[in-house]
């Protein structure tokens, strides 16, 4: 009789440690597993359900301000520190890990409207309605010393007094320049007491300014006259202006795609633009039911977070028309500022109720150390979820979110209104000569004109 | 609007005030007279050397209101206005002038840039003004042939400037004249030069005094040169326009600058994964790395290190270790081979046992047992010791059996079966019971044999302890009994009830009828019995040996087992017989088993046939005999028998037919016309059916009357086949049923007694109106739904519109967004990605998320890196390769750093 022996090398099968897994050989012939697709579907369903079960996005609130939080700034070198400015002129540095104030920066007489940190993390710039720009030494060593001592407050390194109130400030990436916005856009150097450059185009005040992190010489501003303006520091001039139907409250450049930026608009939508083609938005991100107050991109450039006057925080993909996530709590009031953390896994929101809130960017993500096998499992779940995302059952569970009643109702109302408008438009089109009535796509509808 | 205008005016005035000091120096370059080109040409012709100071704001009429106010004071104005107007009017309708206008337009345009410097913001208004003036100017161009004086007057009228402005030579003369200023000099009051016409000092004016002085020749030459080479330089744009142009250019440049990112962005967007976790230095990753950095510091540590790193100690340790484990190669090999042998033996044994244990075949085990017994038996025969032992064992078993009577239907199972009745049991149970009893018989045989010898057998009515007797005897006995019983029945039947229900006349008649039939039957049966009895008696002699061989068998009261026995016998005895005959016999046997009527005679006949077949000599004859007998007996069973026989032939015929159809099929044209094939198949089937019928008929005919049968026509056959069933009606019923299921009929409104009723008053009203309305609505809805169905118009078709809810869950309503075709979408879900169906090496890439980042690692914004678009594919491949090796690399332009 012939004996067939399976030959296996010992090296392959010896475990190094007793905890190691035994090697398993499988026959991967698909004909042996005809039900695999069905199995994976069920797994996807379960994964989605598990996601729902584990969705606990709220980590904690940071309490300490005595007025609404108006602006925040993250330290580009320090993951766990975040600066926040309040309407009463209080600036605080928070340790996110312990959710405590590290130190305060007293000095401003009016509301803080802008905060930013230099790329090396050494300089904190603040500006406010008291017409001053203050620079603070915010280097890690200095602050660590402070936090250890009992003093707990910092003196400004320098104070520049301007003529008008400042409404926003942003720092250029990897340089000593920063820009303030107010009656005009001023470009400052750390070492000068006067702005090295000022731009004015139009007479209305500029309410937000944001440097392009990928292309540091470009900056975008939005003004009260409903315009979005682009500036190029190399040309020493404003470059282009675009006027929309409603005001843009904030702008964020995509850090991974320097040609694209997203504007948070007063009408509750966010508009993603290509800086080269301002006559139409690349994508309109809808879902907020009230003005979007602030926007910040994830450092991965694949998603962004928005804070709205409707008391919610939403997360969007950079290319999707609707939000993928909504965060709200009963106690959170109007959200004035939002920030993504430096590693793209947390979101911080500052709201009218004087609190900063820390959220997970992925609601059901597992915090802490994730072992390789766990990670693989998560990845597998995410992959099958993505694969079966379009099937009705999975989709339904995945998309379901509990909404506060006012938002639910407002959304329904808005939907009804837009439907009615659409209906009317359709009828008008149907009853007029072909070609005489044209409908603009939403991407273009809200843009009035582009000014050279 | 007025505000902006005012502002602008202020601005222009302001600017003018500023530019005044420079005016003289830059007169030639910048501030020419702001007249339309035609006018200017005219003036040049008249007065080539002098540069004329003309009022600056011609176009912006508002701006120079003050100047206009001044004009009426000029005494020329009033007198000449009328004539000038006339001339203008005349010229306006001159076709030539219109031509001129059209022709001149481009030139004016080119000059317009000069005018625009001081234009106000509201260009439109000014443009209109310009147009108006241009027409006038064109008219002037024509009138240039007329006298100078008139021309200047006209000019004055149009431009509102003093006539001196247009009279160069006169001016010169009047230069020395002193004109007293009535107003203080300011921007609102035109200065003396404005009133005067020429207050500007030209270079010539400055140079003239030097004309005669020596030493300025060089300067003069230079001036000459400049004058000769002088070109008109465009005046700069308005600042707003300039800024606009600048912005436009800047935008173009920055656009271009930004476009360099396009490639990188595209690549990153197309990449299946973005990796943000490369180039992270997290310090030591392994224990070994940490240990390698260890440096002894304390005394003790240093001592230890010295010992550990001592060469001698190390060598000795290594040598020791080597000696301790030293084994010769041969020994090791020997040991290994030994162990391997043992293992293989054990393994084989184990496997064999396992295999044997797994075999389920009863025959195999029976054979195995038989084998074992055989060997045992041979052992017994060879070895007296073993024989003794065997005998002892048998004896013991017998004793035990006698004591316990274990196999005499004593256990619960057997009892239960017996109480239920053996006849109602199935074949297997019966066989099992028989087996048990046989066992018992075997074990207690000795005693029985003694009994037999001592006393004749008991009555064989007790089936359990059946004594040996030949089948033939049994058969004759049974037949005898049957005869007795039938006789009895015939006699008994004569008794009729005299009273009760059965005594009624019609009942009596019916009974009589049935009785008659029964008697007839009984008579027939009697005859049969007699025949069979005769045959049995005949066959006893010839079947002597065979019968004795069978005699060892026990038979139970039920006749069925006997049949099966017979069948078994046939099977075992005629293994070598021709397969055909065996088939036939088996068929007959089956037929017998199926005949539950337990027709004893028939059985006997059958067994008879079997027995006869054993004799090869009169084999055929007996079969025929059998047939004859069957034909003689017109009972239903016999025909069945025949049909069985015949059916075999029919089968064969059918086989042949099928072959034929196969041939037909192959001969058919290969074009895949399914309908055709179906049709032909149907036809073939029908053909074969009719054929078989015919043959069946033939088979019957062989045993009956062949000639009297007539083949019915096709139509008749179909009519007969579908007689009584209305297919169309049924179909309609089916359709209605399906409709009702898919669009259920609304329930009729029912008023629950006591609900919604207060008094008898409401009762009169009947059902509430809303109920009726609802019902009506539901009914209408249903009707509409039915009308909308796809099969509403198709009378003979049912198209089900029922949705499979379970399957619906697995389908999307529309094609999801990124996919362009259904196939692509389905393809995306086709291959499973789980760890059960993919090797570990493939799972990683299959399940990798879109963004791979590490928590706690700060991601910095993108930094520019040159991308060669032509190397795309290669890079991709490289990407893949790298990602296979280690997923720590990928999107190259991403810059990552540690936190």
Automatic annotation (TrEMBL), chain A:
Record Gene3D superfamilies: YVTN repeat-like/Quinoprotein amine dehydrogenase
Compositionally biased tracts (Basic residues): 442-452
WD repeat ranges, renumbered to this chain: 62-104, 105-146, 285-326, 328-369
Region feature Disordered, mapped onto this chain: 419-452
Sequence ranges assigned to domain Sof1-like protein in this UniProt record: 361-447
Primary localisation category: nucleus
Keyword Nucleus: yes
Record-linked InterPro entries: Sof1 (IPR007287), WD40/YVTN_repeat-like_dom_sf (IPR015943), WD40_PAC1 (IPR020472), WD40_repeat_CS (IPR019775), WD40_repeat_dom_sf (IPR036322), WD40_rpt (IPR001680), WD_repeat_DCAF13/WDSOF1 (IPR051733)
Subcellular location: Nucleus, Nucleolus
rRNA processing found in the keyword field: no
Residues in coiled coil: none
Keywords associated with the record: Nucleus, Repeat, Ribonucleoprotein, WD repeat
Family of the protein in this entry: Belongs to the WD repeat DCAF13/WDSOF1 family.
The protein's name in its UniProt record: DDB1- and CUL4-associated factor 13
Organism whose genome encodes this protein: Stylosanthes scabra
From TrEMBL, chain B:
Biased composition regions of type Acidic residues, renumbered to the chain: 54-64, 111-131, 459-470, 682-692
Compartments (UniProt record): Nucleus, Nucleolus
Polar residues compositional bias, start-end: 589-601
Native source organism of the sequence: Stylosanthes scabra
Protein name stated in the entry: U3 small nucleolar RNA-associated protein 14
Pfam families: Utp14
Region Disordered, residue ranges: 1-173, 445-476, 529-601, 655-698, 832-899
UniProt entry keywords in alphabetical sequence: Nucleus, Phosphoprotein
